[in-house]
Amino acid sequence: MAEETWRDVWERKGNAAAGKQRYTAAELFSADGFDSALGKTSEASRAHIGRIIRSRLRVAAGQRILEVGCGAGAMLSLLADSGAALSGVDYSAPHIEIARRALPSEDLRVAEACSLPFDAGVFDGVFSYGVFLYFRDLAYAAATLTEMLRVAAPSARLLILDIPDAACEEECTAARRAAGASLHPAHLYYPQEFFWDFARAQSRRATIFSQDVPDYANSAFRYNVLLEP
Question: Measured between alpha carbons, how far is residue 126 from residues 120, 191, 203 in Å?
Fold first, then answer.
């Protein structure tokens, strides 16, 4: 039998969570995989994540904000009362269907992260949370970052959160194994130099900061990146 891919995993998870008319925040996070091993979140975790996204992107009413890899809309739901117009893409059709039920007024589409179905320069902020770890390689990640920049306005900020730190790969693998998490398919780990190099090549300023989400065990092995003009 062929080994399960990340696309297979997310199609399966999305189908398992589908069918409800309404979803709580906890249910959306569960549908997006924050429900097992080191990835569980609490109400405090979710509130903290929402604050980080709002503050780092400077989310304000009237803006257009895009999430790349939005899944079932868990992260976007944290911005639902911001007054911003929210958009999201994900390659899992079952997850987008859940997101459309949870956020019926928002623009949610099935698409690949490296091929965004939007015009250039239309978003005031672009972010991705807990998605880059599922990419197949660094080339795909670079293509996705390039697309995120393309659809962002010249003054927009880009925020990539929950990135597996290559410096912690062995420690993280041991912790995941001890917690009973499946190690296949494998996560993609990133050296911080990958983001520094990308920022320099695109004439952007990069800020790398710690992932300190409370009640979220993966935080010890992750970091975040903010890209600014």
Answer: 12, 22, 17
